[in-house]
Amino acid sequence: MDGGAGIDGEGWLSGAERRPSPSQDHRPPGTNIDLLVIHNISLPPGDFSGDWIDDLFLDRLDPAAHPYFQAIAGLRVSAHLLIRRSGRLLQYVPFEQRAWHAGVSRFAGRERCNDFSIGIELEGTDEIPFTEAQYARLAECTRRILRRYPAITEDRIAGHAEIAPGRKTDPGPAFDWNRYRRSIRGEGRGIAPELPLD
Ligand SMILES: [Zn+2]
Known about the structure:
The protein is an alpha/beta fold. The chain has helices at residues 52-57, 69-72, 132-148, 160-163, 177-184; strands spanning 17-18, 24-26, 35-41, 81-83, 89-91, 97-99, 106-107, 110-111, 117-123, 157-159. The model is unreliable at 190-198 (pLDDT under 50).
């Protein structure tokens, strides 16, 4: 059924650490999942040392832990996947469910992209280059998602900035779209298309 993608009926990706988020709900009935959205996030911004993203997506971020958190604690947000700097892969929402990553958004004339998209967060910032391990993991995840959800064609992979212009800037200029797109096709350096996830 999943064509070897390693994605179960609910949309859990094998090899990802599962952290079920309370910030999710059902997609509208009959939704065809046909968009992939790439983001970046770090908490506090530019700091890659803690597990604060986990806390945010699990709706348990302590507003007293850092001044920046006061503004965002209590926001009900999530993504399907997070790829940390090391390439570590976490899943908060199964793909068949709606994660709350895009906010007010529009793609090809359709609003509310959360309804029909899968969201992947890369731990990072707009300006700091992403790691080799992140590009490798992202390529692997993307190929598996596209195999399982073939309506997500290559031209239906977008950055958050593209679907929420003027409001969002991620994944930002540091994200190498050309490298990413080549890697989805199995081209480019260090790419082993069928390399299993650990
Ligand atoms: Zn974003």
